[in-house]
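--- STAGE predict ---
source: upstream dedup step, 1 unique chain passed
mode: sequence only
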Amino acid sequence: MHDEFVKPFDSIESALEFMTLLEGVISDVSEELRETAEKAATERYKNGLNLALYKMNQLTFHVHKSRRILNDLTLIRGVLVGDGIARKEAAAASVRD
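--- STAGE serialize ---
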């Protein structure tokens, strides 16, 4: 049980899944902030919400970029593993000949 907390992301795929979930949560929270900002009672409160929205947009950008990088790494690993298997099969075939 303790190992789950030590290594929450045991693969690129699990980190990618987390980033996808995080992107969804950020989107939901941003929508709530927009709605709240429209109804803000004071200018100071509205400015604070707009600043929070700006920061959420920055976070959205970075999370989206990170998710794309993780996706690329997953694809690269797939190609490399596939290439490694193809090399082993080619080597085995040449040994048989």
